[in-house]
Design brief:
Layout: H1 2-23, H2 40-50, H3 52-56, E1 72-75, E2 78-81, H4 98-107, H5 122-125, H6 130-140, H7 162-172, H8 186-195, H9 199-202, E3 220-221, E4 228-229, H10 241-250, H11 263-271, H12 275-287
Antiparallel strand pairs: 1-2, 3-4
Helix pairs in contact: 2-6, 4-6, 8-12, 10-11, 10-12
Protein name: Cytochrome c
Organism: Thalassococcus lentus
Pfam families: Cytochrom_C
């Protein structure tokens, strides 16, 4: 027994060390975000494309740029509530630095060094350029502040162990874009895969909640439990690129139906972008292969 313990104890120490290393928060290079040099006007486009207000405004609020938070997002792992990300110094993110904001958006790490749950789509935002991140931060400073406290997530054991999210990130945090596209589709890819994080709804997930990229944009169960999110693959979506762009501008389908549910917020965002951006998204969608 003593000999067995002599073997097991060092092995346990090594395993614990590896576990701590694997689950440790990964942060940005501080030097990249040391100065706030973003352009707020350009940041408004990033903010709109990224759908920040769609999730973080209070449900039913008239001013959708008042990012009080509170919207509920149900999942198999618990219910997550969008936090207050207004520039309020206590209730929101007004006391954050640009580096802390970059860590949150690009790495899913809080100012306190804790992992954020991937209900916050930082897996997609991790593809955001440093320039867009800085512009977004500059624009966020111009928004109204709200003193409403963020609502805690309703997540039970073992999913409430934040450190375990580090292991999930180790396995599933992307290190690049999903599709290999030519240069003329790069803007559409950036909007779809990074800013607008379309795959978060349109791609199915594995048992631990990570996107199944082998079924890229192949449709998925609706997180609300009602119906499914449609596929964007060519075997399912027969719309032309012009149809897709028009839908993103107006919310009307080629079959004279109109957008509904959370997609209405997405269309509202895209309608505020340029025609060129909508066309770029449509071109990317038409390039998605069948699973």
């Amino acid at each position: 027994m003593r000999r067995l313990l002599k073997l097991l104890i060092p092995a346990a120490v090594v395993a614990a060390g590896i576990g701590l290393w694997v689950t440790a928060p990964d942060t940005v290079d501080a030097a990249q975000f040391a100065e706030a040099t973003g352009n707020a006007e350009a940041g408004k486009t990033v903010y709109t494309a990224a759908g920040c207000a769609s999730c973080h405004h209070a449900k039913g609020a008239e001013d959708k740029n008042l990012l009080t938070g509170g919207q509920a997002f149900a999942s198999d792992f618990g219910t997550f509530y969008a936090p207050n990300i207004s520039p309020h110094p206590e209730a929101g993110i007004g006391n954050w630095t640009q580096e802390q904001f970059a860590n949150a958006v690009l790495r899913g790490v809080s100012p306190a060094g804790q992992h954020y749950y991937p209900a916050f789509p930082y897996t997609a935002y991790s593809r955001m350029t440093d320039g867009d991140l800085k512009d977004l931060w500059a624009f966020m400073q111009t928004l109204p502040a709200s003193d409403v406290a963020s609502k805690p997530h309703d997540v039970g054991f073992p999913f409430n162990i934040r450190r375990s999210v580090g292991g999930w990130k180790f396995l599933f945090m992307p290190d690049g874009f999903v599709m290999d596209v030519p240069d003329d589709l790069a803007r559409g890819q950036y909007l779809v895969e990074a800013l607008a994080h379309c795959a978060e709804c349109h791609t199915p997930r594995n048992p631990v909640g990570a996107l199944n990229t082998g079924q890229w944009m192949a449709g998925a169960p609706n997180p609300s439990g009602q119906g499914t999110i449609p596929a964007l693959t060519p075997d399912k979506l027969k719309w032309s690129a012009a149809d897709i762009a028009y839908y993103l501008e107006t919310g009307f389908t080629p079959d004279f139906d109109s957008v509904g549910g959370h997609m209405a917020e997405v269309v509202q965002n895209f309608s505020e972008l340029s025609k060129e951006d909508r066309d770029a998204v449509a071109a990317y969608v038409k390039a998605i292969p069948n699973p």
